[in-house]
Each structure stands twice: as C-alpha cells, then as structure tokens.
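Much of our argument rests on the idea that a fold can be written as discrete symbols. The record that follows shows the chain in one-letter code together with its fold in token form.
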Amino acid sequence: MATRLMLISDTHVPQRARQLPEQVWRAVDEADLVLHAGDWVDLSLYDKLSRRATALLGVYGNNDGADLRGVLPEIARDTIEGIRFAMIHQTGAATGRETRMDAAFPDTDVLVFGHSHIPWDSVSPQGLRLLNPGSPTDRRGQSAHTYLTAVADNGQLTDVTLVRISPEAPTGTG
C-alpha cells in the first residue's frame, strides 16, 4: 500500500512566520507521514504538527533549543514501504555532499535534510537519493517558499514534487 509523504524543513516558527501557511497545513492533512528535517524553533509547532499529522517523523536543527532536542533525535531512520530513509538537519557544504553522505549513510536509500533553505534533489554515486524541501517560511533568495511531496510504494519513491507556496497563501492556525 502506498504512503503519501510530505517533507518539510526550516519552518522557523515563530521567528520567520507566526504560523505555517494554510497550504502547508492542507498538505499535512493529505499526507500519511510528515517528515520534518529540523529548525522548528518552537516546541509549540512540534506539538501542533504531532496532533494534526497522521504520523510525524522529525529531527532537531541547529536553531532548536533544549526543549526540542529533548523530544527529537539528531538523526532519524525509518523504513517506509521498503525504502530505507534517514533524516538529518545539516549535511555540510553542497560541494561533495553526495560522496560525503554515501559514506555517512551507507545503508540508506533516501536522505532527507534541511538547513540551507535551498531545495535539493540529487542521487549520489552509490544511488542514495538526497532531498531537501527548502523552507515554507524563509526562502533565503529562492524564488518561492517550498516543501516536497512524494509517494513511497513497494520499494520505490515516486511522484517527488517540489511544491511552491502561493505568495498570497494565508497563514494557517494549525
């Protein structure tokens, strides 16, 4: 049975936005599993996502304090529909990323990461898929705020889509 995924990172609530855009909350509602790659900033967003998401997997980021580090790991791993996922906030510089991550995550099919706020979708020399959803609240020079959706089904990751948030998207209440 297919699992609909929603990948998000670098939400920075309430520093960059008071709340996530309503478009993001709709995507959370449509997903079977939400993966958050860190920099939540405030525990209240974690609590809201935990209550609203069907299932949630997350890690802490460099801007997350002791409260979030107390409930989230630095690295999360899960096998979803036969696909071995790992998630971490920071992977270092873009140059050489694929080779470094091959060495760091040898038994992984898909690595989800954040930190840069720059969407990323690449495949390493060893076949590791690297995905960064960007940020739904702080685009840092990117043309749009973003997140990713995908489908995990029978050992295959399909329908990987970078979703741009509508500039007039209202802020949601979660």
User: Anything to note?
Assistant: The chain has four helices and ten strands. The beta strands are 3-8, 33-36, 56-58, 75-80, 83-88, 110-112, 120-123, 129-132, 146-153, 156-164. The mean pLDDT is 94.
